[in-house]
Design goal:
The protein is mainly β. 7% of the residues lie in helices and 55% in strands. The protein has a 22-stranded antiparallel β-barrel. Strands 1, 2, 5, 6, 7 and 8 form a six-stranded mixed β-sheet that branches. Strands 3-4 form a two-stranded antiparallel ribbon. The two termini are 31 Å apart.
Length: 675
Amino acid sequence: MTENDMEMMMMMMRSVVGGLLALAMVFSCPGGSVAEETDSQEGAYRLAEIVVSGESESIAESAGTVHRITARDIQDQGARTLDEALELVPGLIVREGAEGSPRIDIRGFRTRHVQLFLNGIPVVDTYDGQFDPTLIPAEIISEIKVTTGGGSVLYGPGGNGGAIDIITKSGKRGLHGTVGGEIGEGERYLGKASLSGGGEKADFYLGVNAYDRDKFTLSRDFDDTDAEGGDYRANSDRERTSLFGNTSYRLGERTQLGLTVSHTTGENGKPAVTNSDDADPFTKSPKYERIDDLETSLVQVAIDHKTAGPFEWRGWGFFSQSEIEENRYDDDTYSTQDKKGAYHQNTDMKIYGASTQLRYHVGTVGNATLGLTAENDEWDVDGFSVGKSSTEDYSDERDIQIYSVALEYEHQLGDRAGIVVGYGHHFQDKDSGGSDDDFSYLVGVSYDLTDATRVKANHARKIRFPSVKQLYDGDSANPDLDTEVTLHYEAGIRQMLPYGMSLGVTGFIIRAEDFIEKDESDPNEMNKNYQDLRFHGVETDLIVQPIDALRLRLAVGWLETEDRSDDSERDELQHRPEWTVSVDGRYRFDFGLTASASLKYVADQYFYDQDDEDPLEKKKLNDFTVVNVKLSQKIVASGLEIYVGADNLFDEDYEESYGLPQPGQTVYGGVEYRF
């Protein structure tokens, strides 16, 4: 397809937006309303849900901060992958930097401090503890639980910022399916299909997804540079193909077995900086990098057994593997690897382990849960790097074990109050022969002052062990790093208001000890433990839903960071926005049309210079506002739905990292058929 063809297609799609309302009236169902679906085709796969809550919150969740995103929320938002589904969560920032994949930060903590679970399977790189959210297609998700700050000790070590727990779809009685496709600017194509079903004893869900983006559109306000000119971002392609499935089988009334499998392949570019300038101390030299091949696999078996007495036992074994081929090239032709700095690298990462939980029901007033986890993380790398005068082959292998034991007790005090107390102890056996251990805990309470007012408070200690990258790889490696520790203090209130409104306000203070970051004053930027970092802020959200068809939400977050380490020149941490504001809403018309829109504003974000010389300089990244819209129309009698939308509707020229422009206005459209 040529660029002229794409331009004509986009013009046609823009005209469809104007004509969609008329189309909706033609196909409306007389006398009926489809503002809400009466019944979803899929259920939720909860066999390996780490913190069991079902449709309501556990006491550990109600005493903390947990945001829930449903499959319908994801559909209204037009999200295609996990990162897009999380864009509007209060306290959470989705940003894209030099790695070419989105990173998810929570309350000022980096992605490596955020745990990600898919049906209880840890989804992280064993190398640096991070994850690529574009590998998880949105349509397989039934619900996302995002815990910000201190949470349940059952999640284990690593969630100093928070935890993202994905519960996937499962089959329901009967046979159901979906087929859909989408096109968008930048030669972007998406195809997806699912099949699910169930009977008296068994159910299944199977989903396939293929996504291909040749490039993304730059804002018309982007000023061309020597490194970047034209309408499209160089080296911004992304390709993903995924297969996902799960099934469960009921052995009698008390026992259920489950299986989850997933396989994803792809490749993507890592767009280089556009503003490299020797006279600008804040810019970096361009790096011409690609992930030319990636392949990930997940498998899990699970069991849930409820005894005739007060005990329930759940367990699951899991395995995940990621194989990645990365290359750095000499220039923007991405064809040669002869100059200093070029490299070729193959990485093989594996995680396998098992988790089990024994739950004791203390009548109707409480639950005690004992959780045990054993995990082995493997990292194997080989390749070559080009030096000044020669090419050097290299290889390395690392193997780390992590063990965790946790006990958490929840107790309901009458009809209005609940308390939770939890303790976890965690162990890391290092590849170099050393070992480390540390502990976490949680104390929390929630109390309903009235039927319309709930208050909450919690205090937690969370820990994170250093990653393979921080301990062993490259000039920045430091095998003597200590465990990171964070202390969380949080209190909040949720007030129900007239006309379907509710207002929530949460304040938090977090103190980080032995926090690992690179030392900017060191020429090698060696990792070190900074002794004293502080994070504090306020998150507030107002939800308005006077009728089922209309829902509006306003969320405002304020975050301040401080580096109180004795030897640090920084007064605050870089790339932590002080202000975030999001507004989103949707309205479902009786004739099948759903109109959705969102706005996100990010302000007061700072970063530091790249020079080794003193004094350290600070610069402010430009504030930005991004608006997304989507219109979808159900053709009621046929099971068909058509939709159009625009991301970055007003074509904002913005950056989430200095010198890395983000997509401009992107129009898309699609169709989905459900049976």
